[in-house]
Design goal:
It is built from seven helices and 40 strands. By secondary structure, the protein is mainly beta. The structure holds dinuclear copper ion. Dinuclear copper ion binds next to loops.
């Protein structure tokens, strides 16, 4: 009897505890967490579902992240030197010289754009802007390497960029900071700026269209007819107060075929070698669609029917017919709308900077003026800027994941000083309600992201670099004196040796290194670091780099491999011996071991083992 009653009591307590926990939401929270964890967990050795390319902002690079794991896979240095990738490190590296020539060794990357064929990503190239120095870069996605950088004339603050759908006819770049038309500060005329249309394959600026105000974010219509840009500061004020006077600014719609005809007819004004179309002189090229003041994002819907402009200072988005350019609706979505992306089921997702939310709304219902166009809202942490759903910029969104790129992370990660890591949040958008899945940090500062499926991209990724014309072949390594004060070292590297692994030069010599990794196995990268000569380059398999250095002060300099490559990685090193200028030592030809005179009569060759 006593035993039975205590048993009943125990069961009752257990039942009460379970019910109590349910009431407090513990049980549901635990299962919600594990379901979210399951959705983003990628087991060791398994691969992510998508590549995400996040702009590096003031890191001047692009971060490649796996989705859904959020794992950082690679950084692609673009506007900054990076020894770890052998990129633009040394003064004589043509990549570095190009950076210096076009604006400097830093950049501010904002908007990654992928090449499209038939309105979907083809995995060939990525373009990205450098806002600060008005540059546009192209990244080859077979190598994940920067291959072209151009400086865009007549333009400052290269901000919004977009590919012209459906086949990447142009990349167009918006000049956000207006300048005196002729570049002279004495010019009393209003400041203006331009949208630059760049041929994506030759990377030439084909033409520009002058637009009043500050030209901000960009997207093209899906049929390639219009280049759309948000424009604020139609007041043409030069300080913040005077930039927010008007109730309405505009979406600029540039009719691309009309602009091409005007350029072909010679109606452009040549400025710094580029024809610039002045809208007043070529009617029909530019239409300004009035939208609430200081708009920010502009995004074309996947079906190509509408353009959505985000209000920023207005709690609305403006829905515009992409053919007639008429405003169809201006629904309220929340405070601080910045950007909009899309799923595959007719829904739009708008980032709300002030509300720290993503709002999901139904496009057709909003266009029809129905009351129930808002579908869902989810809180993000905090103050979201861009957001991007997988394929949201293409004609075929995936409707599975959405990435929130938050501007302020505050308390989301372990403190690492006053400057916190940036916070990205991954949201499941496959159901009616959005579900927060995970967050991951990055260095500063992603502004925007694009995603591509490995099904498209991975088969195009090369395993080794194609041989360059000036590659050093195994067996043809040499040290050649090419002049009284110049030496060329033709060097190869393969596990686990440099050839030659020692050579001699004289103080005052200029040494040209032709460095070739003759590895043919992917992921077998060697580094070549030369102490006290400001030189460290990584050479992935097959790559050749040509770099010039001054011999420096007499002494022995051990060059060594900086990338772990094998059990004999530590032994992979060699000596550069710098003899005094007036050294009586007779230098010998490194290959033949003979005393030779080299290319310049009377000048001893170098080397000696
Ligand atoms: Cu080569 Cu370490």
């Amino acid at each position: 009897m006593k035993r039975t009653s205590s048993y009943i009591l125990l069961v009752a307590i257990a039942a009460a505890a379970i019910l109590g926990a349910r009431a407090l939401g513990w049980g549901t929270r635990a299962s919600g967490r594990s379901a979210a964890a399951e959705q983003v967990y990628v087991a060791p050795g398994e691969l992510d579902k998508y590549y995400a390319f996040l702009s590096g902002g003031q890191s001047g690079s692009v971060f490649v992240v796996g989705i859904p794991s959020g794992r950082l896979l690679r950084e692609i240095p673009i506007f900054e030197p990076r020894a770890a990738y052998g990129y633009a490190v040394h003064e004589t590296d043509p990549q570095r010289q190009l950076l210096e020539r076009t604006g400097g060794l830093w950049g501010d990357t904002h908007h990654p754009v992928l090449s499209e064929t038939d309105g979907v990503y083809d995995g060939r190239y990525l373009w990205i802007n450098d806002l600060s120095n008005a540059r546009l870069a192209r990244v080859r996605l077979d190598y994940f390497e920067t291959d072209r950088i151009i400086k865009i004339p007549n333009l400052q603050g290269a901000h919004g960029i977009a590919a012209v759908s459906p086949d990447t006819k142009y990349i167009f770049v918006n000049g956000e900071f207006e300048q005196p038309t002729d570049g002279l500060v004495t010019n009393p005329a209003p400041y203006t700026s331009v949208v630059a249309f760049v041929d994506p394959w030759s990377m030439e600026v084909k033409f520009q269209v002058q637009v009043p105000g500050n030209i901000d974010i960009a997207d093209s219509s899906k049929d390639g007819r219009y280049a759309f840009s948000t424009v604020y500061n139609l007041e043409q004020g030069r300080d913040m107060g005077s930039m927010i006077q008007y109730d309405r600014d505009a979406i600029a719609a540039i009719d691309i075929p009309a602009a091409e005809r005007a350029v072909a007819e010679g109606k452009g004004e040549m400025r710094n070698g580029v024809p610039v179309l002045i809208p007043e002189r070529v009617p029909g090229v530019l239409t300004l669609i009035p939208v609430p003041k200081n708009p920010h994002g502009v995004n074309a819907t996947p079906d190509g029917k509408y353009i959505v402009a985000s209000g920023k200072l207005s709690p609305t988005v403006t829905i515009i017919d992409a053919q007639t350019l008429k405003i169809l609706a201006e629904p309220e979505v929340g405070l601080g709308p910045l950007h909009t992306t899309f799923d595959d089921r007719g829904n739009a997702f708008t980032s709300l900077f002030l509300d720290s939310q993503v709002v999901k709304w139904n496009i057709d219902r909003a266009v029809q003026g129905a009351d129930d166009y808002i579908v869902d809202r989810i809180n993000v942490h905090y103050n979201i800027g861009h957001l991007q759903a997988v394929g949201g910029e293409t004609m075929r969104p995936a409707g599975d994941y959405l990435l929130a790129l938050n501007k302020l992370s505050k308390d989301q990660f372990l403190p690492v000083g006053p400057d916190m890591p940036e916070n990205q949040e991954l949201i499941d958008i496959s159901g009616e309600r959005m579900r927060m899945l995970s967050s991951f940090p990055t260095p500063p500062e992603p502004h925007d992201a694009v995603f591509i499926s490995p099904d498209v991209l991975a088969p195009q990724v090369k395993q080794v670099f194609d041989a360059s014309p000036n590659a050093v072949a195994p067996g043809s390594e040499s040290v050649v004196r090419t002049g009284p004060n110049s030496v060329t070292v033709n060097m190869t590297m393969i596990r686990s040796a440099f050839t030659p692994d020692s050579f001699e030069v004289r103080e005052g010599d200029t040494i040209t290194f032709n460095l070739t990794s003759v590895e043919s196995l992917r992921d077998m990268t060697h580094g070549f670091a030369l102490p006290d000569h400001n030189l460290n380059v990584a050479l992935p398999p097959g790559l050749t780099k040509t770099i010039e250095v001054k011999a420096g002060r007499p002494g022995v300099y051990w060059f060594y491999c900086t990338n772990f490559c094998s059990a004999l990685h530590l032994e992979m090193r060699g000596r550069m011996v710098v003899q005094p200028k007036d050294s009586p030592v007779v230098l010998t030809d490194w290959r033949s071991g003979q005393n030779v005179t080299g290319a310049v009569p009377g000048v001893p060759s170098t080397g000696g083992r």
